[in-house]
Write the structure tokens for this entry.
Amino acid sequence: MILRHQAVPSGTIGVALGLLLQYLPAQIAMLTLAAAEAVAVGYCATRRELWQARWPGQAVESADA
């Protein structure tokens, strides 16, 4: 299960890089992917629920407490 969850994003990035390399020089393709990753990380940094991971079996704290 874990391998599948890791392989899907890796495969998607590989396909995107392959398509970019067909139409753009390598340096521009890598800069484009780095910019896309920076946007994704910036978006995830604004999601409060992603700041702290919840482990299986960990009690969920209520917002009223």
User: Anything to note?
Assistant: The mean pLDDT is 75. The chain has one domain: 2-47. Helices lie at 2-23, 26-45. Residues 2-47 form one domain.
